[in-house]
Amino acid sequence: MSPATTSWIDALAQQHLDAAYNLGRWLLGNEADASDAVHDAYLRAVRAAHTYAGGNARAWWLAIVRNCCLARLAARKREVPLPDGFDSSKVTPLRSADNEVEDRACAAQQTARIAAELRALPAEFRETLVLREIEDLSYREIADVLGVPIGTVMSRLARGRALLQRALGSGAGEHKYGM
Amino acid sequence: MECKTIQALLESYLDNELARADARALEAHIDSCAECSALLTRLDALRRALRDGDLRYAAPTELRARIAASATSPESTDGGTSPVRILTANPSVRPRRTPAPWLRYAAACVLAFGAGSVSMALWNASPANTQSQLTRDLYASHWRALVANSPVDVVSSDRHTVKPWFAGKVAQAPVVRDFAEQGFALVGGRIDYVGAQRVPVLVYRHGQHLIDVFVLAGESATIGSASLSQGYRLEPIKLGDEFAAVVSDMDQTEFTRFAQLLAVK
Q1: Global pTM?
Q2: Nearest residue on chain B to A63, alpha-carbon basis
Q3: B57, A154: Cβ pair inside 8 Å?
Q4: B219 in contact with A at a CB cutoff of 8 Å?
Q5: Chosen CATH of B133-263 out of 3.30.530, 3.90.1200, 3.60.21, 3.40.1000
Q6: What confidence tens digit (pLDDT) does each residue in B46-76 have?
Q7: What is the ipTM of this complex?
Q8: Pick from A139, A148, A162: which is nearest to B147 by CA?
């Protein structure tokens, strides 16, 4: 394949590299895996460039990134059987990091708590919230990335937000949350 | 609008996905309802916590370099005449949003932080899980279309416009016909996801009723028989030779009449 036919992929990947990495980082929980997944996604996008059929290019690219992340998660699950099949190893260090900043400023503590609770959410709600609140994607774009109907995007957002509100409201720093 | 309706729209409002007229109606309600206002304030507090929390991870420099290296090596056939690739730095800083316009409404209201469990109650109102995933997707798509700015992506009562519009977007463009003379006017079409599949949706109007016709490629087996959900009806039908599903709030007799029109080849 000549460089000319896939150079738009390079531009696309570079332009939305932070978005891709951020999604991977929130799905996979560490820098090495997220970087590898984004790199896989780039190679896959180059190979699959001809299958792009118009539409939102960012959503197309992020959908590939997400698929590469899910493939890694599946492989990880096969190698290391976790008790509940979910990322509990990633939550523990963050909770201890959370403790370390307890005597710092209120804002930093709040951020650490939100990050920890977001990380503790089931992946389907976490990825939807990350795409909406951190990447600022529209419902339609999120639906394209996840390959689900917009109605599902809306219900996942609502459920994810309700879970986060409950988790943040019931934690130790209750008085910190609110306005 | 009633509180229940308003509360179902709060998130779409905050997410900027509500039509302007609906947004104005919602703001007017928020102005005079402490309960809905408190819910909106809670949602917005969460959103600001997520957005202002600096939760975005920026891509490491190594990753940028790695991708740039892959970009120039394996795919290149012109002897690597351009080994240096200029990277456009992508600033991870997003423009800060200005506070939502409803804040001025909320500021005037008394906020009750103690009453926190209200939003969870909305969850228990969801329909029983007896429907298949496909059926739920179809209902969800229809409701979403009713809430959206416009239920169609291509607005046209001319079937010669609607069919070509589909042609570039789905594997097989559906048969598009207008039944305005029989009382079912073609409004347009859109593409929606059902499961992981992109399916064409033909949109008709019958009086005040909006009708979605989902053209399914042989998938309708899992719908089973007709079903009802929250006043809306879903029926599997034949669209000429193709399987389809109709979702609308028309009554039974109108449904049957419409299905007969569509079934004609």
Answers
A1: 0.54
A2: B196
A3: no
A4: no
A5: 3.40.1000
A6: 998 898 878 999 999 999 999 988 876 554 4
A7: 0.77
A8: A139
